Amino acid sequence: MRLWALLSKEWRLLCRDIHALAVLFLMPLTFVLLMAFALSDLNSGTPATASVSLLQHADDADSRFFAAALAEQITVLTTVTDTTNNLTQVVTDKNFSELLNQEATSTLPQLQLIFPASTVPVLRQQVRSAVILSLAQTRLHAFLSANEMLSDEQSLTEQLAIVRQQTDSTITELDLGTKGQVFGQASASQHSVPAWLIFGMFFVMLPMANTLLAEQQSGTLLRLKSAGLPPLTLALGKCLPYFMINLLQFALLLTVSYLLLPVLGLAPLQFNGSPVAYLVLASSIALCSSCFGFLIASLVRSNEQALMLSGGCNIILAAVGGIMVPTVVMPEAMQQVAALSPMNWALEGCLTLLTGHGDIVDIMPSALKLVLFALSSFALAYFIYKYKMSRIKWTAIY
Amino acid sequence: MLKLSAVSYRYPAAEIDALQALTLSLNAGDIIGLLGPNGAGKTTLFSLLSGLVKPTSGQLTWQKTDTRVGLVPQHLAFYSQLSIAENLVFFADIYQLKGAQRQQQLQMVIEACNLSDRLKQRAATLSGGWQRRLNFAIGILQPADVYLFDEATVGVDAQSRQQLLNAVKQLAAAGKTLLYTSHYLQEIEQIANRILVLQQGQLLLDAPISQLSSDSWQLMVQWSQQAPLGWLELVAKLGLTAEPLAQGSLISLTTTAQWQQLNLFITTQMVQPKLLRYGRPSLEQLYLHVTGGQL
């Protein structure tokens, strides 16, 4: 009865705290939608198309064919404007035809790529790939022409079509599942939604810390203690409501993402994997974040500290754990550090289900790590909380 | 009900004891006005009685092991985002009140603190006086044998204060033991039947208020020049002592006859006293006298 009273009180207080509700529900939802938009092209294979300006210093057949082949791959602007400086420049030499057929060991460049310094790696790679393919097609074109397999009567477009028949390939990209099965490539939503959902779930630290502080500062904790409430009941009365809130966040944000993303024209979220596994994973993440939140709440002594510590911990865990930057792009040493972050375990578990089509066995390593972290956090937090309770004074909190 | 034997308490890292070898007993039905200047040890005594701290030395012995202590702290110890009713129901759950007793206690505190008009209003939106009433109500909601009231009526208007004092009297009538601190000494005078005065952790006074009242008729007299001939002799003849003050003397009287004789002497003098005051000192005067004027 006492525990139930504590739980329902905590729920009531939270439902009336509009700022806490915004932090727990509105902010993660905004993150999920914004990041789904921002990363929507990441896995589609067609990130924002690169535009280049082509500066050719020769006007021979090979140069003309190269220009046509490159224009098939990416947008080629031939008109030099003021914006040229912000474009990647593809510059060919006046001896382009001779350099085209030189040995690969030659140190003379066949052409130069000049990127604006701010060009992101994915766009550089796109231009590089397009240029390499166009160069290969131009070499093939030269070979076919030399062997009279192309005639001068054929237009450039026809010649390009014949060359492309020889060079184009049809490739299907598939993802490998946890059981060795293959599936269609996961959309960007499958990656971005769980990352920012987990980020939002760990934000329970802030309202937890604030309510705990309010109880200490108002003297309500003194009343609860003098009423004979054991510290364990009080600790559970603080953790369990936020555990349930975390579960609600998990269910609500996934449901809203599932319903809203297609409406917004984004790749839909697909719930792959076993439903029981989702429940187990959600419970272990919720346990981890609520117990870690209790640890932070028990450590702080002021609202300012609560804000700094909870916000700081959340951002550091997210940055390290692959929420903000995927761990695959991190150096190996950093990846090892990432493997220490509970957010990384949670994300790995979610991706195992959403992109790997895994089941409960597959998410057990992640779930177990989360639960162990939760139990350790709770034990430490309980020790600190009990110590603080033992030092409550009549008129002031120690 | 409770016996303190040479109880001392020293806060961690403090150099002196906040309470020094305090020996006293609390009995059922005692309504104790606990007085003392800041730092006297009142809060420490409340902390000891409520079980928040344990004595550094000495013994604190409850007659019954399951004695329950109800608190009305000075600070507003409730959830400001819950309504009055929600706060009361929550604490009724915490105090494990059930069935008829629960209804009875809730009804009692709502009536005693006159809360029925605003039960649904959130505590944060109440005025200071109403919040104080809620704080009071939560404290007395708990069925307890001993109640500790720490400045329970600060900021409450006179009418509401009287209502809260009536609630305290009801508890006293029900045989509860009450310890009450307040800066309003008239309040203590009105409800207490025993006065404890603490100073620097030591018990300066422990006496029934009736004794303090009946023994404390005093005459303060100040002559413009020397006291008239025969005055000091009369005082001595009546077995009284004149305590010298800065500009006169203070004589404690025990009988009306003594006053009548002194009064007769004064009225027959050619030169009347510059100052003549006769009466029973208030608790405030007694308190200031006992503590040497310290507040």
At the first level of CATH, the class of the largest domain in chain B is Alpha Beta
| CATH homologous superfamily assignment of the largest domain in chain B | P-loop containing nucleotide triphosphate hydrolases
Portion of residues in beta strands of chain B equals 25-35%
- Strand runs of chain A, count: 6
Low-confidence stretches of chain B: none
Describe the structure.
- The complex is a heterodimer of chains A (398) and B (295).
- With 398 residues, chain A is α/β, with parallel strands linked by helices.
- Chain A is built from 15 helices and 6 strands.
- Chain A has 2 domains: 2-42 and 186-390, no CATH class; 51-176, no CATH class.
- Chain A has a 4-stranded mixed sheet, with helices on one face. Chain A has a two-stranded antiparallel sheet with strand order 5-6.
- In chain A, a hairpin with a 5-residue loop joins strand 5 and strand 6.
- In chain A, helix 7 (188-201) packs antiparallel against helix 14, helix 8 crosses helix 11 (275-299) and helix 10 crosses helix 11 (275-299).
- The longest helix of chain A has 33 residues, at 231-263.
- The radius of gyration of chain A is 29 Å and the shape is elongated.
- The model of chain A has no long low-confidence stretch (mean pLDDT 85).
- Chain B has 2 domains: 2-209, P-loop containing nucleotide triphosphate hydrolases (Rossmann fold, 3-Layer(aba) Sandwich); 217-279, Alpha-Beta Plaits, CATH 3.30.70.
- Chain B has helices at 42-49, 84-94, 99-112, 128-141, 158-173, 185-191, 209-214, 231-237, 256-267, 283-290; strands spanning 2-9, 19-26, 31-35, 57-62, 69-72, 146-150, 177-181, 194-199, 202-208, 217-222, 242-245, 248-253, 275-279.
- With 295 residues, chain B is an alpha/beta fold.
- In chain B, the strands form 3 sheets. A 6-stranded mixed sheet of chain B has the order 5-6-7-3-8-9, with helices on both faces. Chain B has a 4-stranded antiparallel sheet with strand order 11-12-10-13.
- Chain B is elongated, with a radius of gyration of 24 Å.
- The chains are: A alpha/beta (398), B alpha/beta (295).
- At the A-B interface, helix 1 and helix 9 of A face helix 1 and helix 2 of B.
